[in-house]
Design goal:
2 copies of one chain form a homodimer. The first copy, chain A, is mainly alpha-helical and about 170 residues long. Chain A folds into 2 domains: about 110 residues, Winged helix-like DNA-binding domain superfamily/Winged helix DNA-binding domain (Arc Repressor Mutant, subunit A); about 35 residues. Chain A contains 6 helices and 3 strands. A 3-stranded antiparallel beta sheet of chain A has the order 1-3-2. In chain A, a hairpin with a 7-residue loop joins strand 2 and strand 3. In chain A, helix 1 packs across helix 5 and helix 3 crosses helix 4. Chain A is globular, with a radius of gyration of 20 Å. The structure holds a DNA duplex (30 and 30 nucleotides).
Chain lengths: ~170, ~170
DNA sequence: GCGCTAAAGATAGTATGCTAAGTAATTCGC
DNA sequence: GCGAATTACTTAGCATACTATCTTTAGCGC
């Protein structure tokens, strides 16, 4: 890599806004997922947004909707919409228990389970693309540092929320 | 491993999906910006989304809408909406030139410029929060690694787009 | 000049994610 | 046990960002 070759369209100075680069990374990743779905003509099966929920379900289904929200780190109304779409697409089913009728448990259907095999290579491809030229150690460092930033912000937000509640 | 313990809440395992953690970091950052705006009762002045565009304009205005899009790394229809909002809020003005009547140049108004002073401390606070407990070196590493991932994905997407065009 | 292509923005329609508020079921305080 | 709080999910409405497509203006080849 020749550092003198600054032939890219985005000069370094555009990256000095941290929120900008983090948001951009998130968006460009999302677009990469979308593009691979298009290429594999899987757009009618699942959307890039739903894919995220599936990835968590493949790691263990039969969880409540709330638990699923926590695993994808999203608010519950967002999960409601995603889950509706996944159910409509026939990839999951929702089951109530007599035990606690407020809860809804999410289960993968056969089709939802099969989709993992189709999508696994794409998943690997994205990861390979994003981390191209990085050592395993660098990838690990990136994940660790991001996680620390997340934990910092989550804690700060939680504190602020607590203060707001107290004053209300 | 005790299978019963696997359903224990281990937040660490939720972070193993890279897209998930990156997206979460982006969202929680955005929420932090929103929360600070609320706290400073500046919600009526500007939204967290518009703030991003302003940050780039503070670093140099009098640029075209397209150039602004590039600086915030967003597509143009997104910029159109943001710019409309900022104009309505009286923070920027749009000017056409006789030179090339397709172009629209964006300029900060007096109010738009003043807002920088009000928002600078919030900006600093977010950065301080997010990077709490990190050394300068770690912060630099995080930025570098994210930028490399962005460049990787941008290049890959550009290539795919070129191929799609060629086959069309 | 005339026709074709490209550039700069705008519009339409959609997906994603949020907050605030609402409903139904469960649990807690006493 | 009974009313109040909590929990789990839903609904409504909004902000943000995207792709695809359109309009207007400029540049190019001849």
């Amino acid at each position: 890599m020749d550092p003198a070759k600054q032939h890219h369209r985005h000069p370094a100075e555009y990256y000095t806004d941290p929120e900008n680069s983090i948001g951009y990374l998130a968006r460009i990743l999302f677009r990469s997922f979308s593009r691979l779905l298009e290429q594999g003509t899987l757009t009618h099966e699942v959307s890039a947004g739903q894919w995220r929920f599936l990835r968590q379900l493949w790691r263990g289904d039969g969880i409540t909707q709330r638990e699923l929200s926590a695993r994808v780190s999203m608010r519950e109304p967002t999960t409601v919409v995603a889950v509706k779409g996944l159910e409509k697409a026939g990839l999951i089913t929702r089951k109530k228990t007599r035990d606690d009728r407020r809860k809804t448990f999410i289960y993968l259907t056969e089709r939802g389970r099969e989709l993992e095999l189709k999508l696994a290579p794409f998943n690997a491809e994205i990861h390979e693309l994003a981390t191209r030229g990085m050592t395993d150690e660098e990838v690990e460092t990136l994940q660790q540092l991001m996680r620390r930033a997340i934990d910092n912000l989550a804690e700060a937000n939680a504190q602020l929320a607590a203060e707001t509640d107290a004053s209300a």
